[in-house]
Amino acid sequence: MARTISASELAARLESGGELALIDPRREGDFAADHLFWATNLPLSLMELRIAELVPRRHTPIVLCDASDGSAAEAANLLGELGYGDVAILGGGCRAWVEAGFQLFSGVNVPSKAFGEFIEHAADTPHVAPEELAALREAGRDLAIFDARPLQEYGVMNIPGAVNCPGGDLVYRLLDSLPSAETLVIVNCAGDTQHHGSAEPARCRHA
User: Fold this and answer.
1) Domain boundary among 84, 108, 132
2) Do 99 and 18 reside in the same domain of the chain?
3) pLDDT tens for residues 107-128?
4) Which residues of 59-70 are buried (b: 16+ CB within 10 A; e: fewer)?
């Protein structure tokens, strides 16, 4: 039986910046409805397949959080069988986290989206409306469109001519992919903050 950790203890550990894997073993839909900010969703059904990829070292401290539905306890037992020796469960789950005065978040990829929104406001990154982008394309403007979503989402729908460049790849590939230093860069996603980043605002616009 894994030990429990209180919400205040978990908050202190997160604040300390020490090594910690915070894992929510619920199904993706339940996780997306409400979860701790830094939690990584790893459904119990995929735990055995993916845990070594996410937490390769068996002595890494792990805290499991759920909605008091029993999934954290099941995950703790499985992790113990797989050789992970420092596993704890957030006592009371997400409800206890809220009762302790902390916040839950909805959606997925919340930390990266929050960072993107911070950068957008701090850099005052300009935007371009769909109609303006269409007019720029029609006028033959020197521009490059980068789609920052994963390949699977890009394959479902995309702006004609857009180059798929998911997330962090944009930082590494952007400059090498531009025809010239005068090329206008347009970065898009499906409508949320995946496309926000630290590209030079004077030369980059968001769709």
Assistant:
1) 108
2) yes
3) 555 455 555 664 666 767 788 8
4) eebbbbbbbbee
